[in-house]
Amino acid sequence: MNDNELLRESFEQAANIYQQARPEYPEELFEDLIHVAKLKPGARLLEVGCATGKATLPLARRGYAITCVELGTELAAVARRNLAGLNVDIINGNFEEWQPGAGTSYDLVFAATAWKWIDPEVRYMKAWQALRPGGHLAFWSANHVFPDDGDPFFRDIQHVYYELGEGKEVERNDWPRPGELQVEKDEIEESGLFEVVHIRHFDWELIYTDEAYLQLLDTFSGHILMDEWKREKLYNEIRVRLHARPEKSVRRHWGAVLHVARRIG
Question: Could you tell me the CA-to-CA distances from 237 to 137, 144, 172, 218 in Å, in that order?
Fold first, then answer.
């Protein structure tokens, strides 16, 4: 198993806390997606990597028929519980190998914080094949962004990560401000299968207690796979620092870039 596969499969270990710990996506993002992709009531959607249903639930509640292909067995089981009673079909499998039923096509293929885990050699072709002519592909991720007036905690805690050999690489753009997250327009259009019709940045802020923040970290692949002694040292240091604050909490800014592209042909 290569490193990417190991990271991708690590989320199984967070299945029982993922839905609670991970942030909700902004309602405005879903409204924007629906408008741009021209989704009509009852539209058929295909989700790539639904995890526990963070993005599935808001769209299913709007009345769309959704098929989800989720690699993780435990994640798929939790998603079925979270989405019970809605028009959602959860398939436990690998999107790269999955095939839609004969004669089945979709109005939208989408992925929320999952697209990067799909093999770049096949993901655009698989999405193209699943879509009806004129259908849309959409994806976005929830990433950490760092406004100039953001919480200094994240830079201050970096020396602990460095001591553990887990620090951010300074030469990379690991500290993006809101609006500075990487845009994948060129990659989409280089596939020759899609025309980008919409890109929009979203950002929002959440406040976490120490335990809520540590639970969030337990859903990130890098922390899941961290040596236990490293994780224990890091988490203890986080608790000490946050308990020393008057508010005993941390402010985390999230960012997402909604990409929407129309199928060519």
Answer: 42, 20, 25, 15
C-alpha span between 229 and 239 (Å, rounded): 15
pLDDT interval class at 202 (50, 70, 90): very high
Largest CA distance in the chain: 60
| Phi then psi dihedrals of residue 106, to 5 deg | -125, 155
User: How far is 100 from 149, CA to CA, in rounded Å?
Assistant: 47
Query: What is the pTM for the complete model shown?
Result: 0.92
Cα–Cα nearest to 159, from 245, 70, 82, 234:
234
- Would you say 26 and 54 are in contact if contact means Cβ atoms under 8 Å apart? no
**DSSP of 140-197, one letter per residue?**
E--EEE--TTS-THHHHTHHHHHHTT-PPPTTS--SPPTT-S---HHHHHHTTSEEEE
Cα–Cα distance measured from residue 199 to residue 251, given in angstroms and rounded to the nearest whole number: 26
Indicate the SS3 state at residue 52.
coil
Q: Is the CB of residue 92 less than 8 Å from the CB of residue 45?
A: no
